[in-house]
Amino acid sequence: MADLTPTTDRPGLHVSKPSPSTPATASAVCHCGASATASGDDQVRALVEGYTASHGPAHAKEGK
After folding, report:
1. pTM for the model
2. Are residues 6 and 13 in contact, defined by beta-carbon separation less than 8 angstroms?
3. Phi-psi region of 3 (alpha: psi -120 to 50; beta: other; left: phi over 0)
4. Are 16 and 3 in contact (CB under 8 A)?
5. Which of 5, 27, 28, 58 would give a disulfide with 51, using CB separation of 3.0 to 4.6 Å?
6. Residue 18 and residue 25 in contact, taking contact as beta carbons nearer than 8 Å
7. 23, 41 in Cβ contact below 8 A?
C-alpha cells in the first residue's frame, strides 16, 4: 500500500482508524505550510474540522 501521509510536496489530510476499538490518528499538511497531527477520536474530529474550515479546501475558495 502507498504511503498516504501528507507532506509539503503532497499536502492533504490523512485519517486512520484501524478498528472500532482503537483511537483514530490524523495528520494534515496544507500547501500554505501549516501542519498538524492528532490522536484520539475527538482530537482527530477537531483537526479535520479545522483543516476543512481554514486550510485545504478553504484556500481554493479564496481564489474565486
Report:
1. 0.82
2. yes
3. beta
4. no
5. 28
6. no
7. yes
